[in-house]
Automatic annotation (TrEMBL):
Family affiliation: Belongs to the V-ATPase G subunit family.
Gene Ontology MF annotations: ATP hydrolysis activity; proton-transporting ATPase activity, rotational mechanism
Record keywords: Coiled coil, Hydrogen ion transport, Ion transport, Transport
Organism: Olpidium bornovanus
Protein name: V-type proton ATPase subunit G
Residues forming coiled coils: 16-43
InterPro entries xrefs: V-ATPase_G
Keyword Metal-binding: no
Pfam families reported for this sequence: V-ATPase_G (PF03179)
Length: 125
């Protein structure tokens, strides 16, 4: 007994071929765009100025690293800023330490008995 093809699934060979052609054409366009952007970046490197019409992360960060200076300089600046901020934090801590301790102790030690807002007068538990 021969198998019959399902009637609900029509076969369109020309449609499948058009989809394949569209996919290959899109891939070619992508490759051309990549080549164009790479050429622009190489031109940028030769001229030494930044002109990136659209954001391409790897191109941008390579250009940024090239013009931002060495990582040692950046690390030294970050460490100096961090040390400066730590000194400010320690000074603020030393200046306000006693007042914070006094407020905390006053709050913990002082006892002011009050009835809870949900407590009903005259009801004992």
């Amino acid at each position: 007994m021969e198998k019959a093809e399902p009637a609900s699934v029509p076969i369109f060979p020309d449609r499948i071929q058009r989809l394949k052609d569209a996919r290959t054409e899109a891939q070619k366009e992508i490759e051309q765009l990549k080549a164009q952007k790479l050429a622009e970046f190489q031109d940028f490197e030769k001229q030494g100025r930044l002109h990136i019409p659209c954001f391409i992360p790897d191109v941008f960060f390579r250009a940024f690293d090239q013009h931002a200076g060495s990582s040692d300089q950046v690390n030294q600046k970050v460490n100096a800023d961090t040390d400066k901020e730590l000194v400010q934090i320690n000074e603020a801590f030393a200046a306000k330490k006693q007042s914070v301790i006094d407020r905390l102790m006053a709050t913990v030690v002082t006892c002011e008995p009050k009835a809870h807002v949900n407590a009903k007068p005259g009801v004992r538990v």
